[in-house]
Amino acid sequence: MTEERLAERTYSLCPVCLRRVPAERAERDGAICLERTCGEHGFFSTPIWKNRLDFREWTKEAVRLGSRSNPDCPSSCGLCASHVRDTCCMLLEVTHECDLRSCRFCFADAHKKNDAPALKQVTGWLRRFVKPRQTFLQLSGGEPTTREDLPEIVADARRLGCKYIQLNTNGIRLANDLEYVRALADSGLSFVFLQFDGTDDETYRRLRGREMMGVKQRAIENCGRFNLGVTLVPTVVQGVNDDRLGDIVRFAVSLSPVVRGVHFQPVCYMGRIPGDISAYGRLTLDELMEGIYLQAEDILGGAELFPSCCDHPLCGFHGAFVVTDDGKLYALHREKPQNTDCCADAARRNREFIGSKWQRPPAGGCCCGDDETGPDGLADLGYFASRVKSHSFTISGMAFQDAGNMDLERLASCSLHVYRDGATVPFCARYLTPLGS
Fold first, then answer.
1. Preceding amide of 404 cis, omega within 30
2. What is the pLDDT of residue 85?
3. pTM for the predicted model, two decimal places
4. 422 belongs to a structural domain
5. ω into residue 313 within 30 of 0, thus cis?
6. Which domain holds residue 299?
7. Residue 352 exposed, middle or buried by CB count within 10 Å (0-12, 13-18, 19+)
8. Are 292 and 247 in contact (CB under 8 A)?
């Protein structure tokens, strides 16, 4: 019996004028495509899944949009009644200035100078949205480390009750200013989200316009001096670094426990993008996972990655591991964790998962290293429990949406939000950019 052809209804946008239009996820030429028609600009079909993994199985727990859809979404609704997820992480832009303006791709398209909000204003924003002992804050920009008072912002966020504080950075300041790193750590920074596109300078020349591998290495080393965990964040572009996924994972594992994981992001066309995006294509989530499986097979040992428990399944994946003594990754889950579908505390659970894995335990608090190891390079239960704390490692990914593949069903399940001008907005709606005709 022939399997029924996929046809799932949703809503999307015209990539040219951003008008909301009905859409369908449908099979075409061996792939799953998001298809829609704009009355002014015509028909669009964008591949969203290349059938490297079973689409129906991967998306079976997605929260369907159905009749809840807000007709104003996403132009003016923020987090409307159609939204099904609380905030897991809140991103706050503390500047639009950047010390690296040569990037081919930049979702924020940072370029402005001297427009950073005053410290008092930033603290005022924090007071409006911080929930004591709950909030996971991402400090972003532009490049946040262009601010001399960033340690004060971190300290204010900590005083107001932020549970986790993450710095999104290109690493230039962290590589070159050890006292600045010390001040951030002393102020209460939890961990660092480091732009990291590959392990060779050619990759950086093509994506960032300059050689940067040495910068990345020094930034990681300096964070390690002050017990700051680092997660590497590659922007993955077809034909540039999609064949370097295994190298990135192996490099990250070699620097455990300072490096806590890799968070892959297939390129998304928003903000600053090349004039001809067709030259780069679209790397779908399942293609990315297939690449990780094949290229890092030697240290993954057959472990699987699972859909996000907090966002739409098409938005991301994750896997939790511990780094063994012999430099392998031992999966903490060999099967999909149970009860990861829609639930009231999904955002809280995901926030704690991220925070507990990416934040390093207090210096000197680890008791591992003296026991004799057992099967799989691990030791007795006490050693294993300690090793999980000291050498936790995650492989995760987030496939952000742009005007070419915006699916409002996915947007309704977004848990990464941006605070801007008094409003809380899903990340992909905040940085949405028309792609042109």
1. no
2. 82
3. 0.92
4. no
5. no
6. 89-360+374-398
7. middle
8. no
